[in-house]
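Q: what does this look like with EPS bound?
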Amino acid sequence: MLRYMTSGESHGPQLTAIVSGLPAGLPVRAADIDRDLHRRQGGYGRGGRMAIEHDVVRIVSGVRHGFAMGSPITLIVENRDWKSWQAIMSAEPVEDVEGKRAVTRPRPGHADLAGIQKFAHTDARNILERASARATTTQVAVGALCKALLAEFGIRVGSHVTELGHIKVSPELIASLSLDEIERRVEASELRVADPSLEAEMKRLIDSVKADGDTVGGVFEVIATGVPSGLGNVMNWDERLDGRIGQAFMALQAIKGVEIGLGFEGARRPGSEAHDPILYSEHSADWPEGHGPSGGFYRKTNGAGGIEGGMSNGEPIVVRAAMKPIATLMRSIQSVDFATRQPFDASKERSDVCAVPAAAVIGESLLAIVLAQAFLEKFGADSLVELKRNYEGYIESLG
Ligand code: EPS
């Protein structure tokens, strides 16, 4: 069973993840994890913090000479900014930290108010330090391990931004591009958009929103290719692949909606135009791009987003998520001081103006984690050698 847990505060000394259940023999390289950590830090619209942090992973257990041993893997990423926060975030009692950077004016849209009430705090810093999207650093590190596992079986995960505020990339343009071309364009784009003609307009929007002390959200899409049919389980609600993807994405900071395949658009179509006719060919040249092993069955359309009955069907898995604008505003928004109960503007903290490109990279990690979990459930094994044997036996049986 592939499990992970993360810990760490945004301005504490470090972020930690412990991952258990990856098969022994899986190649693990810190450089691969660092590559995704670097991708997560990018994106136009990030705040001053990203100039301070240069995220790199330290692997302190579970890996020896470049291979997973089968024991829990511990990943650590240090917060460089902690140097400036040592007294404020001290684990030991501190007599007189000037102001303690207490946050008593909860920000609408943030975890501040519900968090202080739930945990009986008076300072929302005790909440926001963990609610912070800084915690996604470790999820990306775990995701990189899962991507390495999936890559052993030809499964790849990528992402791109489809909407920023009111500006939308044309779905027709996306449909006309190969997945490799989308990836090439997106990796060259500061906003992870596949349409370079929109990039300047999107940057202008971020600049103007920033000048107003405001923030902007958007929509991103994550695609996994090469996924074999049969991951997830129709038989129990909590094992369904789409349900698990939905949970993982909805639990990401600032995400307010998730779609798979056609999503909400499918509800507007008649069944004859929503579902994907089933075809069969033994020749891989007939199969659509990104198709995974499925015994020769394939579809020309992918409205289902690669999942039917809570199980992968061999087509690319396509997930979209809507990110609300970041809740920390530099302009005023009404709140009430928790200590005095008097009306006040919400607390203003250094933050990002737009983090949609970063969220897309995190989305890749979340999808990789869910797919790796479902993959290991189906082909469960203690070593990579055993896993390959089980996988190949299943693929052969499909044929
Ligand atoms: C965040 C606020 C900002 C972001 C942070 C998420 O940090 P700070 O308060 O230190 O300026 O930069 O994101 C990260 C640090 C990161 O690594 O993504 C928040 O309140 O959620």
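The CA atoms of residues 172 and 209 lie 28 Å apart. The mean pLDDT is 96.
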